[in-house]
Amino acid sequence: MLALTELGQRLRQERESKGLSLEDLQKLTKIQKRYLLGIEEGNYEVMPGKFYVRAFIKQYCEAIGLDTDAIFEEYKSDIPSTQTEDMPQQLSRVRSRKEIPQHTKGVSKAYDYLPTVLVVAGVVVVGIIIWVIAQNIVSDKNKEQANQEAPNSEVQQSNTQEETNETTAKNDNSKSEDEQSAADKKEKEKAEKEKAAKEKAEKEKKDSGKQEYKEVQKTGRSATYALSGTDAFNLEVTSTQADTWLDVKNGKGNAFFSSILKKGETKEFDLTKETEARVNIGYSPGVELKVNGKAVDLPFDSSKQVRQVVTIQYQPAEAQ
Fold this sequence. Notes:
This is HTH cro/C1-type domain-containing protein. By secondary structure, this protein is α+β, with helices and mostly antiparallel strands.
């Protein structure tokens, strides 16, 4: 029990050092808070089963950036081994057909109402037949009236058609002028967009040719890079696989962001006025970094180093 208490204390200290609460850890791991608390206190009895103990400890370690293999090796004598638990036998709740009472009295009662039902059904059928006949008579009268009014209608339709043709001709001329004007406007906008895109591409190509992003040093889970040859320092961080803890600070320790970065979310930071930025990533698998719109690699293999800290030292081109 002492070793388990030491494991719990170590996990709790590592979590608190990253500024994570149990609620934050619950969002990252999708493990209920009471189970996370049970791991820290060494109280595995609260788990849904011994099978989950190792899995929950592994997820806890990955979320706070600890080496899972090292933790399991160090505490292998105190962490329960995986074992299959017997599933409780399910009790059948299906009642025997013999136990279901037969409501013979209800059936007999239905037969008593059968004559009344048949009479009502007959009346409904007769009513439907009468309604159909009436509809046919009305339809025939409407057809006769329409045939009598047809000659007058044809004359009116002819006059109306001439007026419609004249109106259509006028509208076509007006529409042609409007379409031409709209086409010219659209063509002008397209040309302006193409020009702007071309100028932007040339500028980015020019800047990318000058920009340098070099590794300065690596130690543990931290790495330092130098950014030079550019007058801008824009940072983008995107998480594509899972939620992750993200902490972005300048060289003076002032935080720009310190919270959960959700899966599929991108955060952008304009750090042009800063000389240094420190990026702390709690769960690096699937995290992408871009500097001035250009993708840069993480310093370590994310499958081996889950938590990574990247420091970028920036020197503007005009200061060189």
